[in-house]
Amino acid sequence: MSLDTAKKQKLIASHQIHATDTGSVEIQVAMLSERISKLSDHLQKNNHDYASRQGLLKMIGRRKRMLSYIKSKSTKNYTDLIKKIGIRG
Q1: How far is it, in rounded angstroms, from Cα 72 to Cα 65?
Q2: Rounded to the nearest 10 degrees, how much is the dihedral formed by the CA atoms of 53, 58, 62, 65?
């Protein structure tokens, strides 16, 4: 469940910190959240796809670690990011 190039560019543009930023933690969290939502929709239709379920759990764990890193660096950036992405609400 990868993202197409147009969707990636849109996510980068909406979450980048400066003009040449393409891989900051905020962008990585946004891309992971989009992949997680697409994979969750897939698993609701295909509930016996255990390999994809395992990949989903790994992505959720990676996103959780990245969010805890952002929270340790700046609580304001953390709250802004989760509001912008729409998670934990």
Answers
A1: 11
A2: 100
> Does the pTM of the predicted model rise above 0.90?
yes
Closest by alpha carbon to 23, among 11, 35, 37?
Answer: 11
Question: How far apart are alpha carbons 25 and 29 in whole angstroms?
Answer: 6
- List the structure tokens of 27: 């962008």
Binning pLDDT at 50, 70 and 90, where does residue 2 land?
confident
What residue type is 80 in one-letter code?
D
CATH number of 5-85: 1.10.287.10
For residue 3, the 8-state DSSP code is: P
Which sequence spans correspond to the domains of the chain?
5-85
Taking the chain, what is the end-to-end CA distance rounded to the nearest angstrom?
Answer: 24
Pairwise CA distance, residues 43 & 54, whole Å: 11
CA pair distance 86, 89, nearest whole angstrom: 7
